[in-house]
Amino acid sequence: METRLQVRSFDSRLSPEEFREVPRNPVYPILDNLRSAFNVGSVIRTADCILAEKICLCGYTAHPPHKKLDKTSLGALPYVPWAYYETTSEAIRVYKDLGVPVVALELTNRSRLIWEYRFPLPVALVLGNEALGVSHEALAVADDILEIPMLGYKNSINVAVAFGIAAYEIQRQHWQRFVPQLASRKGEGEK
Question: 3 lies in a domain?
Fold first, then answer.
């Protein structure tokens, strides 16, 4: 029995202009002073994969133009709307003023397990510095604080990986909302 398996190894066949018209999902990653441009580029790639509405680059987080972002985002940067804020507090205030719930991803004495949380949409998701985590200022004003369970010796996970876990949990919980975007991609590889 012969099986024809085709791996989809191409980008969207939509033109950049057409792609920018695809409806985006109301997920707003807020990067709280990330040290590594490589991590930022990885978060940008994941934000593109879930069609996040906009990514917020705060404080000393690398932001365009930056050659490491171009490299690690593998070309996704032009397709992910972004905004730069001098402080994370400023970005959080913008979303709170719009009525968007702000959720921080951090291990604290009052954080809840990510698997037991029902993500609202829209949602702003605060991701912290690789060494220091989410700032105390951001934690103090977050509507909720969630943690990814850590079972190993170390109590942390790479920030880009953590965003991927949270982003796809949001997508899983709201799958019916994401289906139209997936349907728009079906058949792109067919000739």
Answer: no
